[in-house]
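Annotated sample (chain length 138).
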Amino acid sequence: LPHRDDPDNGAFWNATDEGRLVVKHCADCGKSHWPPRLGCPWCGSASVDWADAPPRGAVYSWTVVHRSQTPGFAGEVPYAVLLVEIEGHAGVRMLGNLVNAGLDVIRAGLAVEAVFAPSPDGTATLVNWQPADAALRR
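Output written by the structure step:
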């Protein structure tokens, strides 16, 4: 369960509840990183804070789940989990399910946009991804 007061990732969950995407950003070296950490993994600085990120990116990699071990998702198989590189934040990659599209549209580099949706148990707002091109959606 997400802990909204957790110093590592609480701000992320608060932002997703508002339909926003945020990443950690270093004031000293100027690089963003994910997953969130209290210090910068690039230069070691403690001058990191949350920064808004565009809710867009490109598919870096993916897997198709045919047998879910996650409660709440068993009825959704098969489904794809995408690794998306966030636009404007080189090397920052987030996971999320493909939604509103068939598995046949997935390819490396596919432009996608975030879709914020409640988790099956209602405890969090998840970041899913759909093709940015409306013609590829169903």
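Annotation: The chain has a mean pLDDT of 93.
Annotation: The beta strands are 21-26, 32-33, 48-53, 56-65, 79-86, 93-97, 111-118, 125-131.
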